[in-house]
Amino acid sequence: MTERRLDYQERRAAEALGRGPDARSTDIASGGGVPAWLSRSLAYCTRCGAELAPATLPEENRERLACAACGFITYVNPRLVVTTLPVTDAGELVLLRRGIEPAYGAWAQPGGFLEVDETVAEGAVRETLEETGLVVQPGELVGIYSRLEAAVVVLVFEARIVGGTARATPEALEVRAFAADELPWDDIGFKTSWWAIHDWVRLRHPEVLLPEAFRGREEY
User: Fold this and answer.
1) Domains of the chain by range and CATH?
2) Residues taking part in catalysis
3) pTM of the model
4) Cβ–Cβ contacts within 10 Å for residue 63, how many?
5) Could you report the per-residue pLDDT of 9-52, keeping only the tens digit for each?
6) Distance separating alpha carbons of residues 97 and 103, to the nearest angstrom
7) CA angle 119–142–35, rounded 5-degree value
8) CA–CA separation, 133 vs 169, rounded Å?
9) Residues 107, 191: contact at Cβ < 8 Å?
10) Three-state DSSP state, 23
């Protein structure tokens, strides 16, 4: 398959639209290719076992990891992270204090990588239950957040708590409900989490004064 190359006017029209609100959670420019840490794990062709190398191919419009031996192209796509913002009946937001790296000891919303054999909603429910002990029903999509450094796209749903009991787990040192004006802004572990919580507060509690910039501790 040959990808159609955009002409100059098409590229300018697309660039004029900007990177979108999901770019708020990344600190690097678009178009930088596969992150170096990820490239190191993709050294060999999955079809024939020969070494992969970055190459500019006539049928592609960007550099790809290609196999010189068999011609197979390894396409590298971001991983999908599904998360929830569980809300109590009192309108408080449930967060967890992470018990694993990255961001050990920092606050974040529950969530994790989507499995290949489950839907987005199923993954969000499973990850929340595993990490917090809470059964939730995902509702409105709060936002989508890109983190190019980590090669992830994070989906964040507001969720209603419908069962279970909040408890510490191997992945959570603590599970706690926060009022919208008492959130731990200075100790949130990921910029994607910071922006998701920021957007939720702005949506549900517009009277609350929000911090102007991320002050947490982004791990990568």
Assistant:
1) 35-74 (2.20.70), 79-204 (3.90.79.10)
2) 174
3) 0.93
4) 12
5) 998 999 999 999 999 999 999 999 999 999 889 999 999 999 99
6) 9
7) 70
8) 8
9) no
10) helix
